Amino acid sequence: MALIAAMAIAMMARLQRDIYRTSLLVHAVQAELYAQGSVAWAIDQLREDWEKKQPGSLVDKLPIASPVKNMQGYRVDSVIDDAQGYFNLNNLSVPEAQPDFQHLVNGVMPELNAKMAMDLAKALSDWVTPGLRDSFYDKYYLKLQPAYRAAHRSMLSVSELRLIKGMTPALYEKLLPYVTALPEKTAINVQLAAPQVLVTLSPTLTLAAAQQIENYRKQVPFTAVDKFTNFEIVKNHKISADKVTVTSAYFLVTTTVTIGVEKYLLYTLVSRVMQNEKLQIKIVWQSKVR
Fold this sequence. Notes:
This protein is an alpha+beta fold. Among the domains are: 35-83 and 248-289, Pantoate--beta-alanine Ligase, Chain: A,domain 2 (2-Layer Sandwich), CATH 3.30.1300.30; 90-178, Ribonucleotide Reductase Protein R1, domain 1 (Orthogonal Bundle), CATH 1.10.40.60. 40% of the residues lie in helices and 20% in strands. It contains nine helices and ten strands. Strands 1, 2, 3, 8, 9 and 10 form a six-stranded antiparallel sheet that branches. Strands 4-5 form a two-stranded parallel ribbon. A hairpin with a 2-residue loop joins strand 8 and strand 9 (262-275). It is globular and about 90 Å long.
């Protein structure tokens, strides 16, 4: 009898584990479906913003939070954020962007001298420039343990920045709130960029001046590029109009699905562009976290 009881207990324990494992799989599938539904909401919202845009007004009033939805015990929260209010690391595929990144580095870590910041910018430029072979940096990376090669392509993730010659954990953490890796060269959205990002637009633009710009736009939004370039503070710093925008083409949608103590995160990069006089809104990539 004792043996039978022990076997029964073992079978029940195994059954409970199987039931729990199955419930986790079901929750994951349902969470994925709810999350993708929220991404569809975001795409519809971006389309509506574009179709209802008015002259003299911002196209998107970001961030945009979805209505909180509770469905069958699941809580779904989604937020649309601008993706061009950051410094795009892939802009360094052209050497002209190196001083911009140098300015950003010195802004977040003033104790780093200008030469070290420029050396880092050159290393990053090498990493994201296609077609390079056997560069000085390649030889440096191959001597490391473990060895690796420079990608010589656009960064797919900001995390690649940790592999760049001269990058330190401390500097990476300081840069992280201000950088992004978008699939093409992009302008900075000056209506949403932090002061630390705005200073990359001109070597003479100080953090104090950038903070003045931030304070002004809270009261009077920059609804057109010329309103920014003609702003008194900006005119003193020779900022090229092709480096700025007030209407982004890339957006990051962050979706959180909660069921009990379980959380499912979905990050979605969405592009919105006009092609052949037709609005195109597409998912560029998605990243899931469970």
